[in-house]
Amino acid sequence: MKGAVGDAASRLELARGLLRRMEDRSDRSDAVRPAPIGPGEDVGGDVLPVAAPLRPLLPAGGLRRGSSVSVASGTGSTSLLFGLLTAASAQGMWAGVVGVPGLGVVAAAEAGVRLERLALVPRPGGDLVAVVLALLDGMDLVVVAGAQRAGLRGQDRQRLAARARQRGAVLLALGAWPGADVELGCSEVRWSGVDRGAGRLCSRQVVVRSGGRGAGAGRRAEVLLPGRNGAIDVPAAAPVPVVAGHEDTRVAVG
């Protein structure tokens, strides 16, 4: 039992240590930090930027502070996550990633994520909630994975979402997250680059769809995830994102 307590303390100290290093390395004059949000205050006007191809999928064209966003697991989910982090990290925002031991930092860098603005807690163990709560106190965006594996309950999700709202941070969940403001997922995957069994895979075209209580219905966009240079991009002559059920009339969203 004593060893288990020690492990829990070490994981929390890791999260707090990441926050201390973040504060030591960050120049407060040019970095935007999440500010606590008081009861009844509205954070809807405070939006973190995302890569341009994803803007039509999100309310206000970005990630609203205080919101929760889920990215469906499966093909393209990690690349989609990088696309949600690139623009914010390039503008000095800090992101924490919890519960993704296999995260490829090289792929993240190729996608445009600023690694010096990325804090990793790959194995939070049974302390997932406590670690995420600690990071939400100081990070602009916090990614959490393995919620089902960790046995996260509904009240745990509500507690994390409430802390994100209070702190003006964005909670990004990899995998199912009931009650998320925005839900994103990839489908219709097509790889390019291989010609008659020769050559190498260069890019992956997917359809990204958004839903959820805060996103509106039927938004979709065709994107390269990743593109040929590793970052998210749009296909050549890509169609305008449309509302589902209106593909023939090409009704633009966003």
> Overall pLDDT, averaged?
76
Overall helicity: 25-40%
The outline comes out as globular
Q: How large is the share of residues in beta strands?
A: 15-25%
Described by strand count, sense and barrel closure, the largest sheet is:
8 strands, mixed
- Would you tell me the structural class of the helices and strands? alpha/beta
Rounded to the nearest angstrom, the distance between the terminal CA atoms is 53 Å
Which ranges are low-confidence, i.e. pLDDT below 50, for 5 or more consecutive residues? 1-6, 25-45, 196-200, 238-254
Sketch the topology as an H/E string, one letter per element. HEEEHEHEHEHEEEE
Number of strands: 10
Radius of gyration: 18 Å
Order of the strands making up the biggest sheet: 5-4-6-7-3-8-9-10
Total number of helical segments? 5
* Multimeric state: single chain
Provide a descriptive summary of the structure in words:
The chain is α/β, with parallel strands linked by helices and 254 residues long. Helices cover 27% and strands 24% of the residues. The N terminus and C terminus are likely disordered. The longest helix has 24 residues. It has 5 helices and 10 strands, in the order H-E-E-E-H-E-H-E-H-E-H-E-E-E-E. It has an 8-stranded mixed beta sheet with strand order 5-4-6-7-3-8-9-10, sandwiched between helices. The radius of gyration is 18 Å and the shape is globular.
